[in-house]
Hints:
Layout: H1 7-28, H2 40-60, H3 71-90, E1 101-102, E2 105-106, H4 107-130, H5 132-135, H6 139-155, H7 168-175
Antiparallel strand pairs: 1-2
Helix pairs in contact: 1-2, 2-3, 3-4
Amino acid sequence: MADGEDTTRRAARIALTVAVGAIALGYASAFRRTGPPIWAPWLLALGIPLALGAIMILGATKGRAGVGSLKIPFAFVILTLAVGFSAALAMPATESALSRLWLGLPARAAVIIYGIGLLPIVVLPVAYALTFKTQTLRAEDVERVRELGREFRERNPDATDSKRAPDTVDRALDESGGDPE
């Protein structure tokens, strides 16, 4: 790797490419004359969490610093999704009216709703709230974005119409007294 290369973004892009390929192959296999093979849902069960994780990482990566303290919550969410989907696939399809319920749901549905649906909804907002100060843009970052916008407008005067597309960053900073917090 070259000096200064953003390894976090590069790894996330590779993971996203692999995940999208796995998802596409899983879906494409449904068009076989004999039906989807036994491995097709497993590609989805692993590809979807990998894709979601890669997208979260791409969105949260801040320069070459990576995702910082969001590593653990992101790993937890990716692992929870992969284990949840895999568990739901691995469990026998023996639900009936007499099946034992888990918090009011059949076992496989409970894994999906409570494991895949509920846990990430609880963990991610808490993680983002705890890391807000370190993961959001600083005043210097906002100023850099504003400067890049000014340079772009100077090079491309016809690219935007300021009456129809006001500079929302400038307006937001002006309204807040110049402090992005």
